[in-house]
Every structure is written in structure tokens, then in C-alpha cells.
């Protein structure tokens, strides 16, 4: 039985742990955080990813944890409503698509893997060295261990990727925007409603889901690459406050609440593009290998599908990890490329460059319900996401490939 280390305990790592365990592998997950990461923002599960969740027996639970969002309202600097959109259309969802909080999905995945998977929290990989016996792994806090295989599921700024493939700058491509999300009091008493305040070059939002007492604040802005310490939240909070100083609507109040936010997050909207996702006995999955960025709306689905395919290919390879990794890349590459294509076009609608573009977008929102062919117009909005989300056929890896 191969012994596999997964670095990273979020969606990709937890899903991979589930399927590797199901295929008969011994699995250890190491996570830098002291406990399960249960924060985060709204995420979507679509297309092929729904099939993966269903095969895990979790689809009903995922649906029970749906955000149940109803409407998106757009406001100006004085808080006056200037447009509305259904939550489904705002999120590019249709049919069976599900929106869930990242923390809820993480908890469901962890519960599904708690039996038979070894978890090591508050630790991280610091060095990797291949030996005839496998991969010798050095940890920040634990004693060194040797594993047959190591998989980096440790996100956009993957340590495993850096140790195996080299500097992050070779693979992480900034899309010219940043995003910040954190929890705030629900002072607007929002109920399954998303409020958005668009301004030239920025977009500020606040939403509260069906089962939440608090709310999330979201700041999107276009920018060149920014210099800041990713380990220093205080520095990042000051940067965001300076960038949004003087803006209208609820921005000042949200920035005040930011100072006490326990889950502050800020990062570039970036993609990871690599020619290969494995080297020797080390592979990557999820954002570490092929982050599509939050702008794609498909990062979670890529993580779910990628983990399922990797585990299945390793099982079918019957001990030949090189063949398993090669099959994983071959089967998943097209799906990744199609989903990464979504980000650039989505960003154009998420952060508008000028006041004139904002006025035109709001005018179209107001006119759409009254226009002939409105249903076809809506289909054109969701069609690219649907095609990307279903750009792979989920095989049954319990039967070896013919």
C-alpha cells in the first residue's frame, strides 16, 4: 500500500485524501493552520464537480448548506439602488449548480475523511528530497518522515511547488487585480442579499447568506503588482484602507470593521500556469497546479475534479506513479485550460474601468427584463461557464481504463 503525503487541508487536499483512501492508499494530510480552515467566501460547485460530490455521497449535504442567496442589488455612492439581478445570474449559475460557503464545504469534506486519514495540523513541509525509498520530507515542527509520494495541494503560493519546481514568479501570473474578503457585522441586516457598489477601477460588496448572522465584505480593485508581506495582515489592512480612502456607500464603515476581522484575506487575482504538474514522486493538485483565480468562478470545481482524476489515475497505474501522473495531466489539461479562459472575460464585468461603463451596465440591467429575447441574452451570459464546467467526462476509475 503506497503511503502518500498531501500538503494542504483545503478543498483539493481533502478531496484527494478521500479518493486516495477509497482507492486503498495510506494518506497523511499536513496543514499549516492549527485547525481546519473554516472561513472563506461563497464558492460554486458546477458541472463535472457535482458528479464528483455525488460520488462521494455528499451532494445532499452540500445542497442543504446552500447559501440560498436571492438577489444582488447595485447601489451608487449614496446608497441609492441603480440596478438589480437575480443571485443565480449574478453568480453565473443555472440548473443544478450549487453555491456554498467554502468553510461549510471544507467541514463536510473533513468529516468524510476523518476515519482512515492521518491529519497533522500546525505544521508544514520545509524540504523534500527523493531517495531510493521515496521522498524524505522535513517538517517545520514534526520529525522527518519518508513517503512513497508527495502531493502539493497548498494553494496559489504553494511551498511544495517552490521546493520542487522553483520560484513562484515562473508560474503565478497576476491578472492585474486584487481581492480582499473578511467577516463584518451585518449592520445592513441583509437577508440572502448581495450589495454591490461599483466605482471606476473598484467594486465593493457586502453579503449575508441564508444561515449566517454576520456578513462578508468584499473589495475588488484593478492594480499593478503590489509589494506587501503576505504574513503581515496589519500591513495589508493599511494598504486596503489607503486604496479605498474617500470612497462612498458603506466603504468607510466596512474598513472600520476590517480592523477587527478575524479572517482578513487579501491577495492578487492570479492564475497558475505550468507545463507539467509532476516531477519524480511529487505532484500538484488544485490551485497549486492550475489556479484559475476567483474571477473564473471555477477554482473549487477544478479542485474537486482534479483531485478525483489524480486519485483515479494513480489507482489505475497500479504502483507506476509516473504513468499515473502522466495520465492525470493528459486527462485534466483540457478541462483546466477551458476553465482558466473564463477569468479574463469575467474580470471585465466585475471591475469596470469608467463611470460611463458603469452607467451602461446598469442601464442594461434595468432594460433586460423588458427586452425581446431576454432569455437568450441570459443564456449567453451563463453559456461559457456551463461549457467550461462540463469540459470533461468523469470516468469510473473503479474499472481500469481499456
TrEMBL record:
GO terms for molecular function: FAD binding. Transmembrane segments: none annotated. It comes from the Bacteria. InterPro entries: FAD-bd (IPR002938), FAD/NAD-bd_sf (IPR036188), FAD_aromatic-hydroxylase (IPR051704). Pfam families: FAD_binding_3. Residues 3-338 form the FAD-binding domain. This is 2-polyprenyl-6-methoxyphenol hydroxylase. It comes from Microbispora rosea.
Amino acid at each position: 500500500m503506497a503511503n502518500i503525503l498531501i500538503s494542504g487541508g483545503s478543498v483539493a487536499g481533502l478531496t484527494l485524501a478521500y479518493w486516495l483512501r477509497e482507492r486503498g492508499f495510506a494518506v497523511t494530510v499536513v496543514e499549516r493552520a492549527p485547525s481546519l480552515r473554516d472561513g472563506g467566501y461563497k464558492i460554486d460547485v458546477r458541472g463535472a464537480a457535482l458528479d464528483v460530490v455525488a460520488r462521494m455521497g455528499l451532494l445532499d449535504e452540500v445542497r442543504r448548506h446552500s447559501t440560498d442567496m436571492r438577489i444582488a442589488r447595485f447601489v451608487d455612492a449614496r446608497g441609492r439602488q441603480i440596478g438589480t439581478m437575480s443571485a443565480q445570474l449574478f453568480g453565473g449559475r443555472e440548473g443544478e449548480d450549487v453555491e456554498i460557503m467554502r468553510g461549510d464545504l471544507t467541514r463536510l469534506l473533513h468529516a468524510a475523511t476523518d476515519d482512515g486519514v492521518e491529519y497533522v495540523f500546525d505544521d508544514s513541509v520545509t524540504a523534500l528530497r527523493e531517495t531510493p525509498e521515496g521522498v524524505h520530507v522535513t517538517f517545520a515542527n514534526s520529525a522527518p518522515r519518508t513517503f512513497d509520494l508527495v502531493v502539493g495541494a497548498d494553494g496559489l503560493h504553494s511551498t511544495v511547488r517552490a521546493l520542487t519546481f522553483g520560484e513562484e514568479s515562473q508560474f503565478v501570473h497576476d491578472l492585474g487585480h486584487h481581492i480582499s474578503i473578511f467577516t463584518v457585522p451585518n449592520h445592513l441586516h441583509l437577508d440572502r442579499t448581495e450589495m454591490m457598489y461599483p466605482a471606476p477601477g473598484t467594486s465593493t460588496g457586502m453579503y449575508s447568506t441564508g444561515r449566517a448572522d454576520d456578513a462578508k465584505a468584499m473589495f475588488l480593485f484593478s492594480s499593478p503588482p503590489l509589494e506587501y508581506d503576505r504574513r503581515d495582515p496589519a500591513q495589508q489592512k493599511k494598504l486596503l484602507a489607503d486604496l479605498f480612502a474617500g470612497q462612498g456607500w458603506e466603504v468607510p464603515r466596512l474598513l472600520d470593521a476590517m480592523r477587527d476581522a478575524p479572517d482578513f484575506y487579501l491577495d492578487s487575482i492570479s492564475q497558475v500556469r505550468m507545463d507539467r504538474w509532476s516531477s519524480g514522486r511529487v505532484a500538484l493538485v488544485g490551485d497549486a497546479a492550475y489556479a484559475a483565480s476567483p474571477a473564473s468562478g471555477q477554482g473549487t470545481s477544478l479542485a474537486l475534479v482534479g483531485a478525483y482524476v489524480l486519485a483515479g489515475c494513480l489507482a489505475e497505474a497500479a504502483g507506476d506513479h509516473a504513468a499515473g501522473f502522466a495520465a492525470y495531466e493528459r486527462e485534466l489539461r483540457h478541462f483546466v485550460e477551458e476553465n482558466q479562459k473564463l477569468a479574463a472575460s469575467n474580470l471585465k464585468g466585475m471591475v469596470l474601468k469608467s463611470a460611463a461603463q458603469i452607467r451602461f451596465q446598469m442601464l442594461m440591467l434595468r432594460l433586460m427584463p423588458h427586452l425581446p429575447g431576454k432569455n437568450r441574452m441570459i443564456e449567453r451570459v451563463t453559456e461559457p461557464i456551463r461549457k467550461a464546467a462540463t469540459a470533461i467526462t468523469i470516468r469510473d476509475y473503479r474499472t481500469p481504463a481499456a
